[in-house]
Amino acid sequence: MTTPSYLKWLVDTGERQATACGREIEIWELNPQDDAEILSNWARHFRNHYIADADLPFMAGGTGLGHPDYLRTILFPDAKVAPGPSLRSGDFGEIVVADFIEYFLGYWCPRELRYQDRWNRNDSTKGCDVIGFKFANEDNPGPADELFIFESKSGMSASGANRLQDAIDDSVKDRLREGMSLNAIKRRFFDRGEMGDARKVERFQNEADRPFRRINGAAAILDEAVFAETDMAATNGAAHFNQENLRLLVIRGPSLMKLVHTLYERAADEA
């Protein structure tokens, strides 16, 4: 897969903040520019999480809808009717975090099936938000292999909530969701006859017999205004079950909800 060109707009600010429990929060910035080509590439990458372009003519066929209206009314979360807008911002955050761990950190991160298998466009997919896999040696699984599970929370408008704390608290639930989420991903690959990928997921289903390293992450994708009003120093991850391997990430950016809607509209219009 080609690295999404928009990722050049996602940069490490170098800023680090400490939590109440002494952990480090990485602060990254997403600062899109007015570049039509990159925005189009980003919109296509975004759209392909919901449907492959090659599948779009058949799936839209018979509905009486053109591709843009099919995407807007059948696949994409609603732009105005709740919970559509919050689902849009949540999906956006998850996709950005998935791209972060895949292209910046080098994990295999199969995530399109999470959105393509969604029956209700205005209902979030259950389970762990983002799962990444890394193999020290794909031909010989060993304890150096890594399973990275990230919980993502978006904050696009002022609410008074600490979205990074919300992500940490929900990440605690991943201890129970992990097994079901891995089974769901494996099942999706199995149903598609992609047995090689199903086996790669299977490698992480029995830690007792096949040890690996587990890393958990909590991410907050925040509009600049929300970031400015959030007391990051009050964030506490001391209660997390995997606190020794807990990565904390904040991605901030200007006018993010406007960007989210722009991407969805471009993804539909250019289909």
TrEMBL record:
Positions of the Anti-bacteriophage protein A/HamA C-terminal domain: 6-267
Q: Which Pfam families match?
A: HamA (PF08878)
This chain belongs to the protein called: Anti-bacteriophage protein A/HamA C-terminal domain-containing protein
Q: Name its species.
A: Agaricicola taiwanensis
